[in-house]
Amino acid sequence: MSKSFTHAGVSKQDGQFKVRFANDAMRTKVLIKNGHTDIDIIELKHAMTKEDAVAFLMEIDFATKDGVTNALVQEALANELDKRSEVAKVTATKAAPKAKAPKAAKPTLDSIRAKAPKTTVTKAEVDAQLEDAPY
């Protein structure tokens, strides 16, 4: 079951617009307190999920005010819509039960020995390499 919201809009923080969701208009006070600017949150027709709220904002052309479209707001809405559609895809993918892979057999001493390198170095070879070392 998805959470629903009664208010949605955008705010700008650190030069970037992000879509915001809330259940009352008092959310603007919290955003202002946290340094957000250009806050524009509207009350939705009815409670909506985040996906529905973003679709509604796109439908009413929320980014356009007085005939001028704010490209940054439009981009934030588009990014949120893309993000929400990806979440829906991942959720749908996770919902399908996956077949479990068969458990791997426990390693045996023989299988470990088979993977070990076949070459060994004698103590005399190590001593010879240490004598030739430049330090």
Task: Report the helical percentage.
Answer: 40-55%
Strand order of the largest sheet: 2-1-3
Shape: elongated
Q: Helix count?
A: 5
Average pLDDT, rounded to a whole number, is 82
Instruction: Give the C-alpha Rg.
Output: 30 Å
Order of helix and strand elements from N to C terminus: EEHEHEEHHH
The end-to-end distance, rounded to whole angstroms, is: 69 Å
Strand coverage percent: 15-25%
| Count of individual beta strands | 5
Quick one: biggest sheet?
3 strands, antiparallel
State the gist of this model:
The chain has about 140 residues and is an alpha+beta fold.
Describe this structure in words.
This protein is of the alpha+beta class and 135 residues long. The protein has a domain of 91 residues. Helix content is 43%, strand content 24%. The chain is built from 5 helices and 5 strands; from the N terminus they run ββαβαββααα. It has a 3-stranded antiparallel sheet with strand order 2-1-3, with helices on both faces. The protein has a two-stranded antiparallel sheet with strand order 4-5. A hairpin with a 2-residue loop joins β4 and β5. α2 runs antiparallel to α3. It is elongated, with a radius of gyration of 30 Å.
